[in-house]
Amino acid sequence: MSVEIVLKYKETTYRFVDESEYGPEEITGETAEFYWEDGNGSCDCNRANGIRKYCDPTFPEMNCGGDEIDLISVTVM
Ligand SMILES: [Zn+2]
Question: Measured in angstroms, how far is the CA atom of residue 63 from the centroid of ligand 1?
Fold first, then answer.
């Protein structure tokens, strides 16, 4: 499974393939959609980690609880 994530911060769009391993939903309860929409990946700190990992190593660390990085789409391919 691969998952394409599109995030937007200010005027910049970041698109990457998330290579994380998500366990079967019935075991972990955590699908990629859940992770990015409502799970840990809904927090700016982890969205920033994803951008740093896959797109831009210089992207700043973001505080928890912020709402500055928008999730545009999660596409399971
Ligand atoms: Zn956080």
Answer: 6
